[in-house]
Amino acid sequence: MNRRLSLLLPLTLLFLFVLFSPACRAMAGQGALCLDSITSIDSVLVATASGKPLLKKNESLKQVPASTLKLLTGLVALEHLGEDFRFPTRFFKDAGYNLIIKGLGDPLLISEVWEEIAESLAERIVSVNDLILDDGYFSPNIVIPGRKRSTNPYDAPVGALCANFNTVFFDRDSRGRIVSAEPQTPIIPFSRKKIRSLNRKKGRYAFADNQTDAARYAGELLAYFLRTKGVPVRGRVRMGGTNPADTAVFTYRSRFTMETVVRKMLAFSNNFIANQLFIGLGARIYGPPATLEKGARVVSDYAGDKLNLRHIRVVEGSGISRKNSLSAMDMLEVLKKFAPYRNLLPQKGGLYFKTGTLRGVSARAGYIHRPGGEPYCFVVFLRRGGQEIDRILRCLGDTFGLPANGTR
Question: How far is CA 20 from CA 14, 23, 126, 193, in A?
Answer without folding.
Answer: 10, 8, 75, 67
